[in-house]
Amino acid sequence: MNLPEKKLQELLEAVEDINPQLVDYWQATAIIESLGYTDRVIQKEFNFPDALCLGKYIYERHSPFPSPKPLQARQRFWKRAISEIGIFIDQFSRSFVYAIPLILTLLLEYIGLEGKVRSLPLGLASLITLATLASLCTSGGFVQMISRRGAFYIGLGEPLQARRVCLPIFYLGAAASILFCLVGLWFGFYRSLVADEYLILAAIYYLLLSLLWMLIAMLSVLFSKAEAFVLIGFSLLFLLFRVRLGMDAIAAQIATTSIALAAVIILVAIAFNKGKHACDGSADVKLPHLSALIYLLAPYFFYGIGYFSFIFADRLIAGWAIDPASGLIFAINSDYQRDMDLALLNFLMLVPWVEYLSYKFIRYWYDRAKRLTPITSRAFVKKLRYLYGLALLLTVLFFIFSFTLVVGGFKPLNLGAKETSQTLLGCFGYLFFAIGLFNGILLFSLNRAKEALQALLPALALNFTVGYLCANLVDVHRAAIGLLVGAFAFMIFSSHKVLQAIKFPDYAYYLSGY
User: Do the record's keywords include DNA-binding (predicted)?
Assistant: First the structure.
């Protein structure tokens, strides 16, 4: 603690000795002046412009109540712990829902239920995998736009405006999904790549999933806890159709997705009708033009597409690198799929953890930035760097825990040295990407979406380039090297931008608009 900070602490203690329960900052200012401090002395010793500013600073930092009793302290601890658990569960449900189809497939395979029911023909299975990945990649941008803009109006206390602004974005996303679906059908029919019935089923499945992801995003804006119910219902329905009724995979997936889509549409319609006749006048407020919304949300749109494309880039590359002699245009090697599924499951456990850490980090930043002074700014920068390093360390420790849990719980008995090394390669790639995701959330919270996009897009290009070269020149299993290299680049680029923002925490807070 330097000399000015020490003097400030001594003054704070002196004020609290005179009156430990200050009424307001005017009283704190009066006490400071009664101690003989003038504006000139205050400027010289504390670097505050006048006694009033120093009084506000003292009032914000004094302890307004006597020391709590041990019982009260214990009650506060448990209340805080329950609140933290609630925040973590909320973060978990938001990020976990979008990977349900892949996770359910993984669970069925590794707990021994998949072999008890009929499997898909190889050509159709490849198309369904491609449709699932494409639905997440193409709808990811619209999901980000809906979530960001909806959360903006919800934060302003304007749920009706949130409903109004989400609807045109959904229409735009639905139109884009339908157009992409039609183009895919036309290309498949024109080239006669696969059987027509397979192509139609895959197109229907793609469209259903794309609409479902966007509607779930709308539902999460309107009902904050709805995603958890959708997750549970989706899982139970799929298990019922697939295991209990013995339906094949495509029938179970389409039936489950259709029912879930219908249920979400009903819930969204109820949410839109709720408050439709509100008389608060908010419906008369003009929303930004759609072109303005697209301009404002373009970084989020491209980040959402890049996010899911990054996660599944190695699978897309591995699928396209198949031997043409097989007669298939896209197929992922089953061994490669199994090994990377383990790595993906580990990543899906990391995502809610880094989202929770980013939430805590940014809340601390915002709370302290409101009370920064030229004297305390340097110490605050050091504190933020320390907490940033601690967050990265906790992420690595959680990675070790989740890796042990996932591999120990889901590892097949025939997983040899080669398969283990492949899983490790994917896990480390996803670890680097999770750290980059942590940085990206911080940059978005600081209203630096463009910088997050600047870190992601070059890393995504590196992921595809290195993965394509390794898959085609070395071996299809080496496509994961692109994930590792690209994720490491994303981690480095995004970390540099976050550390640059930490250098000037007050300016970064001011720029964020909070």
Answer: no
Chain segment 282-297, per-residue pLDDT in tens = 556 677 777 777 788 8
User: Which residues make Cβ contacts (< 8 Å) with residue 36, sequence separation at least 6?
Assistant: none
DSSP-derived letter for residue 194 is S
Tokens of 94: 């938001």
Q: How far apart are CA 449 and CA 442, in angstroms?
A: 9
Cβ–Cβ < 8 Å for 101, 253: yes
Q: What are phi and psi of 96, to 5 degrees?
A: -85, -25
Q: Please state, as a whole number, how many other Cβ atoms lie within 10 Å of the Cβ of residue 56.
A: 17
Contact 346, 403 (CB under 8 A): yes
Exposure string of 34-54, with b = 16+ CB inside 10 Å and e = fewer, is: eeebeeeebeeebebeebbbb
| Structure tokens, 88 | 């973590």
| Rounded-to-integer distance, Cα 392 and Cα 290, Å | 39
Is the pLDDT at 67 greater than 50? The verdict is: no
Spell out where 126-253 has E strands. Answer: none
Rounded CA-CA distance 447/147 in Å is 15
More reliable by pLDDT, 254 or 460: 460
At 155, list the tokens.
């934060």
Single out the residue of 235, 256, 216 nearest to residue 136, CA to CA.
Answer: 216
The residue with tokens 């690209």 is 486
- Asked whether the whole model's pTM tops 0.85, one would answer no
Measured distance CA(281)–CA(286) in Å, rounded: 11
Cβ pair 352, 91 in contact under 8 A: yes
For the stretch 243-261, pLDDT in tens is: 777 776 677 777 888 888 8
Structure tokens at 487: 């994720």
Per residue in 10-22, pLDDT (tens digit) is 777 777 777 766 7
3-class SS string, 58-103? HHHHCCCCCCCCHHHHHHHHHHHHHHHHHHHHHHHHHHHHHHHHHH
Q: Whole-angstrom distance between the N-terminal and C-terminal Cα of the chain?
A: 29
Q: What share of residues in the chain are helix, strand, coil (percent, to 5)? A: 80, 0, 20
Domains of the chain, by residue range, sit at 3-61, 118-287, 312-514
| CA–CA dist 2, 453 (Å, integer) | 39
Ramachandran area for residue 36 (φ above 0: left; ψ -120 to 50: alpha; else beta): left
Q: Which residue has the higher pLDDT, 268 or 457?
A: 457
Contacts of 84 (CB under 8 A, 6+ apart): none
Contact 457, 436 (CB under 8 A): no
> How confident is residue 129, by pLDDT bands cut at 50, 70 and 90?
confident
